[in-house]
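Late entry, written up from scratch paper. The run itself happened at the end of the previous shift, but nothing got recorded in the book at the time, so transcribing now.
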Amino acid sequence: MSDNVVPLFEKTTPAPMAPPVVDIAAVTAPTVEKPSVPLWVRSARGVRTVATHEHTKTAYRATARHGLYVLGGTRIVARRTWEGRTASRYERLLRAAEAAGNMEAAAEWEERGQRFRQERHRRRMDLLTAPMDAAKGIAAGAGIGAGGLLLLGIMLAVANKDWTDIGAPTMALIELVRWTVFIITVTWGPLITIGPWAVLLGLWAVGKNQQAAPQWALPANARSNDGEPITPSIVVLALRNLGIAPLRNAIKDMGDAGASMLGPIRIAGCGVEVDVTLPSGVSTNEIQGKRRKLAENLSRHEHEVFITIPQAARTVRLWVADSGALDEPIGPSPLVTDPDCKADYKSGKAPWGQDLRGDAAALSVYQRHLLITGLSNQGKTAALRALALWLALDRTVEFRIADLKGVGDWDMFDGLSTVLIQGPTDDHVIQATEMVEGLVAEMERRLQAPPGTKFTPLVGIVDEAQLAFMCPVKDEEKRPYGGSKATSRYFMAVRKVHNQGRAVDVTLWEGTQDPTDQNLPKLVREGAHTRASLVLGSESQAKMALGDKAVDGGAAPHLLRQGLDKGTLVVASDGISIPAGQASITIRTHYIDDDQAKEIANRARALRDGVTTLHVIEPGEVRDSLADIATVIGNTNRVLTQDVLQRLAVLSEDSYGSWTHADLKRVLDGTAAEPYKSDGRMVVGRERIARALANRDTDGSASASQ
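Output as recorded:
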């Protein structure tokens, strides 16, 4: 091929090109197309949003509410009309009175119903002769009217000297009738149009006034959360819906719809009380086991319904509180409000609080051992201390107190109690045990006194006594201080006081928490005459605290609310007024704070000549008798020899527990401080003892080094 020939197709090499820019993200992340939502789905969502919107719900409720007002008003007016024309009102009130057990009211309504029927019968009989009487009346009225108009026309004609005036009154009457017909003709159409709406408005007003619409349709500010008033029908309905088949069937078979089961509903403090006689086949414990459901059927909380067992067979007594009433505090203690309040150990009663009826609840502590238990921080110490503060206002009572919590709850008894031990350690438990053993020694001394000897009351108090029962420490003879066996020193001392102490006015009060068989032995808890319990965790603990009989009879401290029912006690005791047939009573105690307690203690201290309080009991040490006598006398000018002996025994049971008047006289003979008579009773003088200590030869005495 020649050089000048150009080929038709020539192979050429393309020029180099720049590499393309690749978007890595676009390559690695695949494009996901968002699927389109169908129109019908979006429409349904929109409809649902609109239908469930709060404004839409409000509009629904408003529409339903006003429509139901009209229906409810119609029902109310129809019922009123029916009751006005029939004896149904009297029948309804008669049944309600019979259901409530008010036979007097029932007889009155029956009599009124009978009178209504007689008068209705008379009216119906009168209707038989009414057409004839009406025709006669119309004829007589027309004749008298025509005659009167004619007479009036004659008088006008004579007066005007125009005889045409005779027909003037008659024509005037005819003209009045014409105008009346004209006015009615003009207004009849609007009246026909407006009348139904006016009737509808009237029915709506009646329904609105009576709130004749369900709760869900009422506006928020018109809905009430308060419990409904307790009526016979509500009680029967609540019992019928308990889920107890024999009870439900028996109520259905009763001709009076269950009204005969109920006694009268009585106002009882901040609630009502009613006795329910159960039909055959239904036991009382079945009703007790349904307390929560019964309370909810009555529109109450569980803690607002109490079920007890009265004396009548197959009967339960329901006490139903007004809604929210038990959450309101009760008033202050009379010990706080009445500065002149006094106490009497033998015949008086301590103002402890109020029962559920709102009545004052007072407790007698005369010759009664006391046990108060409950969970921690529920008001046990405050309840126990309130009784002691009242009794301290009786100047004849001696206290010996051991507070095994040791946080100062009993500080105000310094100067009131002859012994005051405060602390939680084993050493404090040992001292508390020896204090109770001192009560035993004093009890035995009194039991051996000549017949007819009078003794002043002696009350021992051990707070947080569970620490004493659980103490593992043993003495030199390997006897444990704690425990529930015959070798336990504390247990045996408590048992001895329980067995014989009350006969000589030596009593023991104990406060303990969270009871078990280990920290509150059976023989100890059953030895208390007054047993009280705050809120507990279980029914078994409730039976430990109050006994099987009280719990089986309806006592339920385990159903109280922890924290909310602080200071509320269930009490089983013959020292307090308990409604007939019940085994216990529930009390809301007055709370006395520390400052108020100190003020009451100061009043009690002013009633006494002066009490020396011992804080530590030291056994087995060498004693200086004269110095000890000076110690127990304290700042009191004169102390009875009997009281000196008691205080010495408390000071050292080992040294002075067996002392008699002869021993005291022997020690004081020759010291110029011998006992002498004052107001006919033997006493020891403080100034004489002080001079004897100052003037005596101190060689070998325990006071020489002081």
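The CA atoms of residues 323 and 573 lie 29 Å apart.
(Scratch paper discarded after transcription.)
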